[in-house]
């Protein structure tokens, strides 16, 4: 009995000696802390985007004193740059920069008068955004803010001269998302609605005309995001 007990003990010790390294490695792997997930919000608060932007206007407006008069405007595709600053993981401010043009056409009862003129627009817009952070690399956001549109390089067409569309403040609403490919780079899709209805005036064969241009454009953009 004593001899068999000694043999059994030796076998147990041998198995322990052989399996010890594997068991230790397995235990170390189980005890190691999990790899930290990439936290995109721990980076610089600055972010920039470059987008291609479709400017889709609302074809509404009128000439004062002419019943049934209307206006229509050309739609355009232009580049856009925006700069964002994150105050917290969720709250950011965004400055949107870009410029475009609009051809203005007579519509409704004045459709036969043709093209009224052309103007360039510089509509810097600032929005305050809320970014949702519970979806990993997918980062949707909503925003609201203010727009100030400057009209420049204005010119009448044909019998229309001295076109003057007045600079105007307006409200802005925004919804979009970034999909981050890594800590810095991502892709972006964004939709904004500007509420923009400037007063305007023009001379037609020397007679002054006034009215309101109800542009109210949709700005639909897609592009690239870079987080510093």
UniProtKB/TrEMBL annotation:
Gene3D superfamilies: 2.40.160.20. The keyword Signal applies. InterPro entries: OMP/PagP_B-barrel, OMPW. Residues 1-24 form the signal peptide. Keywords: Signal. Belongs to the OmpW/AlkL family. This is OmpW family protein. SUPFAM superfamilies: OMPA-like.
């Amino acid at each position: 009995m004593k001899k068999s007990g000694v043999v059994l003990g030796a076998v147990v010790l041998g198995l322990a000696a052989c399996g010890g390294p594997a068991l230790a490695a397995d235990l170390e792997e189980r005890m190691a802390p999990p790899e930290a997930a990439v936290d995109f919000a721990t980076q610089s608060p600055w972010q920039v985007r470059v987008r291609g932007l479709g400017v889709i206007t609302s074809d509404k407006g009128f000439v004062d004193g002419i019943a049934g008069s209307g206006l229509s405007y050309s739609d355009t595709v232009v580049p856009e740059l925006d700069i964002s600053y994150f105050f917290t993981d969720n709250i950011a401010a965004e400055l949107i920069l870009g410029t475009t043009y609009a051809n203005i056409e007579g519509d409704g009862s004045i459709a036969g008068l043709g093209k009224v003129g052309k103007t360039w627009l510089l509509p810097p817009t600032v929005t305050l955004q809320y970014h949702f952070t519970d979806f990993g690399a997918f980062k949707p956001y909503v925003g609201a803010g203010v727009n100030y549109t400057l009209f420049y390089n204005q010119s009448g067409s044909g019998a229309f001269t001295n076109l003057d569309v007045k600079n105007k403040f307006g409200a802005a609403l925004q919804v979009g998302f970034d999909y981050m490919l890594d800590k810095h780079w991502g892709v972006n899709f964004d939709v904004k609605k500007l509420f923009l209805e400037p007063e305007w005036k023009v001379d037609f064969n020397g007679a002054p005309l006034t009215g309101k241009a109800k542009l109210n454009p949709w700005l639909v953009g897609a592009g690239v995001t870079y987080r510093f």
